[in-house]
Known about the structure:
Elements: E1 2-7, E2 10-13, E3 18-26, E4 33-39, E5 46-51, E6 58-60, E7 68-73, E8 78-83, E9 92-99, E10 117-118, E11 122-127
Parallel strand pairs: 2-11
Antiparallel strand pairs: 1-3, 3-8, 4-5, 4-9, 5-6, 7-8, 9-10, 9-11
Amino acid sequence: QVQLAESGGGLVQAGGSLRLSCAASGRAFSSYALAWFRQAPGKEREFVAAISRNGVATRNADSVKGRFTISRDNAKSAAYLQMHSLKPEDTAVYYCAATNPGSSSFVTYVGPSQYTYWGQGTQVTVST
């Protein structure tokens, strides 16, 4: 089991940058594939980016390609989402998620139902 805690959200002007962090506690952080999702008011939870448990494979939503980068540091039991060129439509609560992918070290998942563990979220607000 793993517990996740996000941080780094806040208010930023359009065009600005933020770096979100996801700190994990519990067992075997390197066993888990990770992802970031976001949810804006009145909308469904949306995939943002995913990373395999070995950090080699990543996947981004089309809406954030070229602007957001997911990474992880297994030695620190942490994951990150570096966000550049932020837009007002990026405003949402951002969640870190984890799941054990079994034997594959390279798999990434994009569906919320594929993730077992979730953090409480961190608010990102982008102003015009």
